[in-house]
Amino acid sequence: MAVNNVSYTWKQFDSDIKEICKIIKEKYPRIKTIIGIPKGGLVPAVAIANNLNLNFYQSFSSIQTTFKRDDILVVDDICDTGKTFVSIEGINLFTTCSLVRKNNSSFKPDIVMHEFKEEEVGWVHFCWEPEDKEQKRDNTFGGNGV
């Protein structure tokens, strides 16, 4: 099977943020703080924090350590290998979220909007990333693609 690259659009982003906020309200109502993993997790983390009127931080060092698991949501754009999430000390103490996850990842966030097979999807180009003329995008989220 051919490996496709996909473009993640603003339309898909808006839809996913609304769904994530709904999931948080229903399943994780104790979340009070959102932490975005730089760089890719910052955009979705800010959008979630703004939509739910919650605190936003871009590092763990600037927050209190007295929070419980359901008090903090850690957000990244993609969980590709899982190494970024796993590298965070005590990651299992927090609720986690990723817009996209590849099935071979060593980590499974609590909230995942899209999951792909590694052998089917190569590069995911997110709408807030600069255009890369060398990177060919074969499909678009929410369209006729993946």
Which helices and strands, and how do they pair?
Layout: E1 4-8, H1 10-27, E2 33-36, H2 42-52, E3 55-57, E4 72-79, H3 83-86, E5 95-102, E6 111-116, E7 121-126, E8 139-140
Parallel strand pairs: 1-7, 1-8, 2-3, 2-4, 4-5, 5-6
Helix pairs in contact: 1-2
Walk me through the structure:
- This protein is of the alpha/beta class and 146 residues long.
- The chain has one domain: 3-Layer(aba) Sandwich (Rossmann fold), CATH 3.40.50.
- The protein is 23% helix and 29% strand.
- It has helices spanning 10-27, 42-52, 83-86; strands at residues 4-8, 33-36, 55-57, 72-79, 95-102, 111-116, 121-126, 139-140.
- It has a 5-stranded parallel β-sheet with strand order 3-2-4-5-6. It has a 3-stranded parallel β-sheet with strand order 7-1-8.
- The chain is globular.
- It starts with a strand and ends in a 6-residue tail after the last strand.
- The mean pLDDT is 85.
